[in-house]
Amino acid sequence: MPPSPLVSTAWLADHLGDPGIVVFDTTKYLPNEPKDGLGEFRAAHIPGARFFDIDDVADPETDLPHMVPTPGRFAAKMAALGVSNASFCVFYDQKGLSSAARGWWMMGLFGHDAAAILDGGLPKWRAEGRPTAEGDPAPATPATFRPDWRPTRVRGVGDILANLATGAELVLDARAAARFRAQAPEPRAGMRAGHIPGSANLPYTELLAPDQTLLPPDQLRARLAAAGVDGSRPVVTSCGTGVTATILTLAMTLAGLPAGAVYDGSWTEWGGRPDTPVET
């Protein structure tokens, strides 16, 4: 299997249908985007792909969106989707790269490193004239998945509050600069505007080429360095709900830097609470 967490459209076209390859559409649209990921999947998806619903592969007992589930729930969901510990999972999304990295990161969080992201996603696949399918996928053959939980890869609000005092970790926010600076409203009603005190901003869109593929590793390193990420200080990535934060995690991995951790609740948790400090 590829050594990189990215695979090209050409690689996937050559290996589509190979035993052990599981392809997932991981699309999640924001509340202010008038689309439904599953509905769009049914209209057009890579042949043989299944839909990875990050709202379902999540903790059902919190009002925060798509939070990390327990290892037991994750294992059950993966098994039902036909993923075993021998599977190689390829994640893509309908926007190019927006939510696919969340699927890749979750696999690693639960100890499964045989996972990758389709560089450029469905837009690049379609732009190259590659085939798509419609409707629901064939039911998956149930499998057995054993999770190996890696808790050091995730942070909670208590960790971020403690970090305000120590500054031991750099919090790197993937949201657009206008949201980070409280110059644009949040897409979720009731959220305060601004950012976690002391955090840095690197909008994930600045890591993408015009065709929605990731920039080359040297350019990723340069953009990360400009945001204060050089490997000398641990990094915790954040965003709106812990989804595009994982694109920063992916970029650090591709750049040869320590991947750090993800603040799972991200701004929806921090900005939605009355007791957390905010900078603008």
**Gyration radius, in Å:** 18 Å
How much of the sequence lies in strands comes to 5-15%
Poorly predicted residue ranges: none
- Provide the residue-averaged pLDDT: 97
Q: If helices are DSSP runs of H or I spanning 4 or more residues, what is the number of helices?
A: 10
Top CATH class of the largest domain:
Alpha Beta
Q: CA-to-CA gap between the ends?
A: 44 Å
The structure class reads alpha/beta
The named CATH superfamily of the largest domain: Rhodanese-like domain
The share of residues in helices is: 25-40%
Order of helices and strands: EHEHEHEHEHEHEHEHEHEH
Q: Largest beta sheet: what is the strand line-up?
A: 1-5-4-2-3
Could you give the count of β-strands? 10
* Major pleated sheet: 5 strands, parallel
Taken together, the total number of domains comes to 2
CATH-level-2 architecture of the largest domain? 3-Layer(aba) Sandwich
Q: In one word, what is the shape?
A: globular
What tags apply to this protein structure?
single chain, 280 residues, alpha/beta, Oxidized Rhodanese, domain 1, 2 domains, 5-stranded parallel β-sheet, 10 helices, globular
Layout: helices, strands, pairs:
Layout (H helix, E strand, L loop, with lengths): L5 E2 L1 H7 L5 E5 L11 H7 L6 E2 L19 H10 L7 E5 L7 H10 L5 E4 L2 H7 L26 E2 L1 H10 L3 E4 L3 H4 L19 E2 L15 H10 L8 E4 L6 H10 L6 E3 L2 H5 L10
Parallel strand pairs: 1-5, 2-3, 2-4, 4-5, 6-10, 7-8, 7-9, 9-10
